[in-house]
């Protein structure tokens, strides 16, 4: 779907920098220093999510057993968007209703909205994306998380019909092509 | 809100009881009862009756207010049913339009803008800064997200404009997806937005714009201070007018749209938006947002603005349009009040606001004029 659309402008051979060739690993680009003091560090590198869900708009949601979740965009979306040049983040303390816009990503003159598939309160944002938006291209599913949300009700995730599990999301991607 | 919508047909009926229509008037009414003017009575149309129609629609706005046009575009986009394409044309009175994630202090010569009393707008799509005037037509092509393509609509424009019999300049697509003449002069700038299930590609098309004014509005020199930010930078390009008539251009692109999207079951409808068209409340709400300081200036991410004069170096740190911190390279009494004020209050970053707290008149005029020409 979006893949075909964005493709022509997204990556020109000339614009690939050596650091971008590592896109598919979870290694950080050299420009980004892993922040072990960040409150999200243990979520990203120590704890395992109890649920890992996806939306048809290509967001992912990793839910942890303290009833919080990390929201970001999938590897697929990150490739489809092309070079990310700006990330608009929500603010800590923002109230989010299911379906609300939680931020946006700009790439190649396009502003793409990011939606939250759950309701809750924003308790953390990934400040690193403000200075280095390209983290979203390098490592969208770990270091490129966008918002940390305290869920109103964890059952909303379990019962949601809009949220796909990994297998269904992959099928959805195949169908989309 | 819901209640209002429910009420409105009833209200409409209530108020329409007394209104005579053209068809109801006989010769006697016209002559003897002085009701002749009702011949010109036209029932006002409402934009909402078209925006959700399940057929391709071309909206041509006859309005020139940039705030209203951008708000109508946003409304049509939000209200469109998926899988029924929309095309909108609008021509704005002179204004400068920055991209959603840009910094006005960095992109625009605010001094010239304020001198010419030209409005500044921040649009909802990405990309760089453009200048609109009556010699420039804006188009907006809205479609499903799954059909989003950065090039397709510009190709349609190129094909149709090149086939106009009196077209003077052949145009083509460059590697960035911009429309340029064969000599490489840009005639159109594009920007895009993607939301749940839908997307639009809109752009400008230079027909007979005042390019010298455009240049002055967008060129800044280092004397006005150097801005460091993470906002989106505009890519400067050499530009040119196509010297076509507005109607010619609109008609040729409309024909292209009809060729592409009209089928026997799906006729293209053309709707003109003029002053008589009733606009929904959402449009007025968006106009207010587009006019607000918080959106135009406040939606700018952190930046620093550095000024140097002789041996003085002054750095202003601004976040969300508010001056947060002032750094001066030497002890300078002139900035004592400004620093004190900024440490305790939010100050909207405008020339006159900052100048107001600088005690030396000469310095205060200089700073105000550098920031945005207001002192």
Key attributes of the depicted protein:
heterodimer; A: 177 residues; alpha+beta; OB fold (Dihydrolipoamide Acetyltransferase, E2P); 25% helix; globular; disordered N terminus; B: 375 residues; BirA Bifunctional Protein, domain 2; six-stranded mixed sheet; five-stranded antiparallel sheet; 17 strands; 23% strand
Explain what the structure shows.
Chain B: Catalyzes both the ATP-dependent activation of exogenously supplied lipoate to lipoyl-AMP and the transfer of the activated lipoyl onto the lipoyl domains of lipoate-dependent enzymes. Chain B: Pfam families: LplA-B_cat (PF21948). Chain B: GO terms for molecular function: lipoyltransferase activity. The complex is a heterodimer of chains A (177) and B (375). Chain A is an alpha+beta fold. Chain A has a domain at 47-153 and 166-172: OB fold (Dihydrolipoamide Acetyltransferase, E2P). Chain A has helices spanning 2-10, 41-45, 75-81, 128-131, 135-138, 155-159, 166-176, and strands spanning 51-54, 59-63, 68-73, 84-88, 95-96, 101-107, 110-115, 120-125, 147-151, 164-165. In chain A, the strands form two sheets. Chain A has a seven-stranded antiparallel beta sheet with strand order 5-8-9-3-2-1-10. A three-stranded antiparallel beta sheet of chain A has the order 4-6-7. In chain A, a hairpin with a 4-residue loop joins strand 2 (59-63) and strand 3. Chain B is α+β, with helices and mostly antiparallel strands and 375 residues long. Chain B contains 14 helices and 17 strands. Chain B has helices spanning 2-16, 27-32, 48-51, 66-79, 104-107, 110-115, 152-162, 211-218, 246-261, 281-291, 293-296, 336-344, 351-355, 361-371; strands at 57-61, 86-90, 95-98, 120-122, 130-132, 136-144, 171-173, 179-181, 186-188, 190-194, 198-206, 226-229, 269-273, 303-309, 312-319, 322-328, 347-348. Chain B is globular. Chains A and B meet through helix 1, strand 4, strand 6 and strand 7 of A and strand 10 of B.
């Amino acid at each position: 779907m979006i893949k075909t659309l964005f493709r022509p402008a997204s990556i020109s051979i000339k614009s690939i920098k050596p650091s971008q060739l590592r896109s598919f690993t979870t290694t950080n680009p050299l420009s980004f220093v892993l922040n072990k003091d960040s409150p999200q560090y243990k979520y990203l590198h120590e704890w395992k999510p109890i649920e890992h869900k996806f939306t048809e708009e290509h967001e992912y949601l990793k839910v942890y057993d303290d009833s919080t979740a990390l929201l970001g965009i999938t590897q697929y979306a990150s490739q489809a968007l092309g070079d990310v040049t700006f990330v608009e983040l929500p603010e800590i303390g923002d109230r989010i209703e299911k379906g609300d816009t939680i931020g946006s990503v700009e790439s190649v003159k396009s502003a793409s909205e990011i939606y939250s598939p759950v309701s809750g309160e924003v308790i953390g944002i990934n400040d690193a994306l403000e200075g280095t938006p390209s983290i979203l291209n390098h490592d969208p599913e770990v270091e490129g998380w966008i918002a940390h949300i305290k869920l109103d009700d964890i059952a909303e995730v379990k019962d949601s019909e809009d949220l796909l599990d990994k297998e269904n999301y992959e099928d959805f991607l195949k169908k989309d092509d | 809100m819901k209640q209002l919508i429910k009420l409105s047909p009833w209200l409409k009926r209530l108020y329409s009881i007394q209104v005579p229509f053209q068809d109801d008037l006989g010769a006697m009414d016209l002559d003897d009862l002085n009701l002749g003017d009702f011949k010109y009575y036209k029932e006002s149309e409402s934009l909402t009756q078209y925006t959700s129609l399940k057929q391709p629609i071309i909206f041509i706005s006859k309005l020139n207010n940039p705030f209203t046009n951008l708000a109508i575009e946003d409304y049509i986009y939000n209200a469109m049913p998926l899988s029924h394409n929309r095309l909108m044309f609008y021509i704005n009175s002179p204004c400068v339009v920055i991209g959603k994630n840009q910094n006005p202090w960095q992109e625009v010569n605010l001094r010239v803008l304020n001198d010419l009393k030209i409005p500044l707008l921040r649009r909802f799509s990405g990309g760089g800064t453009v200048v609109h005037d009556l010699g420039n037509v804006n188009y907006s092509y809205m479609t499903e997200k799954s059909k989003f393509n950065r090039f397709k609509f510009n190709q349609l424009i190129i094909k149709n404009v090149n086939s106009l019999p009196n077209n003077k300049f052949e145009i083509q697509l460059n590697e960035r997806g911009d429309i340029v003449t064969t000599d490489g002069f840009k005639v159109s700038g594009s920007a895009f937005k993607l939301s749940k299930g839908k997307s639009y590609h809109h752009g400008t098309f230079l027909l007979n714009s005042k390019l010298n004014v455009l240049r002055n509005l967008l060129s800044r020199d280092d004397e006005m201070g150097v801005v460091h930010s993470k906002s989106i930078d505009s890519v400067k390009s050499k530009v040119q007018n196509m010297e076509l008539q507005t109607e010619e251009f609109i008609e040729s692109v409309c024909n292209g749209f009809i060729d592409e999207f009209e089928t026997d079951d799906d006729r293209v409808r053309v709707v003109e938006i003029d002053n008589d068209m009733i606009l929904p409340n959402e449009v007025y709400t968006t106009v207010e947002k587009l006019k607000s300081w918080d959106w135009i200036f406040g939606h700018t991410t952190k930046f620093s603005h550095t000024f140097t004069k002789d041996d003085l170096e002054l750095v202003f740190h601004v976040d969300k349009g508010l001056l947060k911190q002032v750094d001066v390279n030497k002890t300078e009494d002139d900035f004592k009040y400004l620093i004190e004020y900024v440490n305790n209050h939010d100050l909207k970053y405008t020339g006159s606001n900052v100048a107001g707290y600088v005690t030396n008149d000469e310095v205060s005029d200089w700073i105000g004029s550098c920031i945005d020409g207001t002192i």
